[in-house]
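lol forgot to send this yesterday, sorry. struct tokens for the thing we talked abt
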């Protein structure tokens, strides 16, 4: 693993989300200053909602017009569905800031066929990053969460998607949920410049310890994340409670 691994433990969830928001904005400002654009993929689930709300509340003046927002994964549901990651991001961030609609790249997860939704999203990525065949996008930042089973994005232990090495986006069958999830593949996650894991709460402590200090065979999906630049683990005290510090 050539990336720089950084583990930051904050005393409370509120302090965690403030630190994550500050880092998000810092990375964004640097990307825009250097390349005129900030490309970032947001994570789903419940944990990042507080981060997105904070970005909307404290950083509405950020250069969202120079920011391209993507989704690292999506549930196979329409955008108004309660399980939709897009809906969560729209409610907590997009509906509260001024960002051109064309800057938000949504997974068209309302498509009946999950594989078609994945292929469509891959095409969106290839068009935006002007990729040639075999090339991968270099996002400035990808946000990720951690499941208590060691999954990240929608790359779950034992799922076929773990082996994908050429496509950018796949429809990954998740046996325990009996559904597909549309998700970035490991090559996309690992071609990012920076990856930020956001973990909060004692229910994540055991898996955080295994991911950061354990050596499981096969490795958990979250242990297979190695971006080109920095791998940041942003934890609150409860999520870090089982680490040997
Ligand atoms: C999703 C996520 C997923 C999430 C973890 C943690 O669509 O659910 O992308 O990978 O980050 O499941 O979820 P919580 O934050 O809800 O614990």
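and heres what i got for the seq, position by position
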């Amino acid at each position: 693993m050539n990336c720089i691994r950084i583990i930051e433990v904050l005393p409370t969830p509120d302090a965690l989300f403030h630190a994550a928001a500050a880092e998000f904005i810092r990375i964004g400002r640097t990307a825009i200053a250097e390349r005129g654009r900030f490309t970032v993929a947001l994570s789903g689930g419940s944990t990042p909602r507080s981060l997105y709300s904070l970005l909307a509340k404290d950083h509405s003046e950020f250069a969202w017009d120079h920011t391209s927002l993507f989704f690292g994964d999506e549930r196979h549901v329409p955008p108004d569905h309660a399980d939709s990651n897009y809906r969560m991001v729209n409610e907590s961030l997009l509906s509260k800031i001024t960002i051109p609609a064309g800057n938000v790249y949504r997974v068209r997860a309302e498509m009946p066929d999950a594989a078609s939704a994945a292929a469509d999203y891959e095409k969106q990525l290839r068009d935006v990053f002007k990729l040639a065949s075999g090339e991968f996008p270099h996002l400035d930042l990808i946000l990720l969460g951690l499941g208590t089973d060691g999954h990240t994005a929608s790359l779950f232990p034992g799922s076929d998607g773990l082996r994908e090495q050429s496509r950018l986006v796949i429809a990954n069958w998740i046996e325990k949920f009996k559904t597909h999830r549309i998700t970035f593949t490991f090559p996309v996650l690992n071609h990012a410049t920076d990856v930020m894991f956001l973990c909060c709460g004692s229910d994540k402590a055991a898996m955080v310890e295994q991911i950061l200090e354990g050596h499981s065979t096969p490795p958990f999906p979250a242990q297979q994340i190695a971006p080109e630049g920095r791998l940041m683990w942003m934890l609150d005290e409860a999520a870090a409670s089982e680490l040997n510090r």
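The chain is about 30% helix and 20% strand. anyway ping me if u want another try
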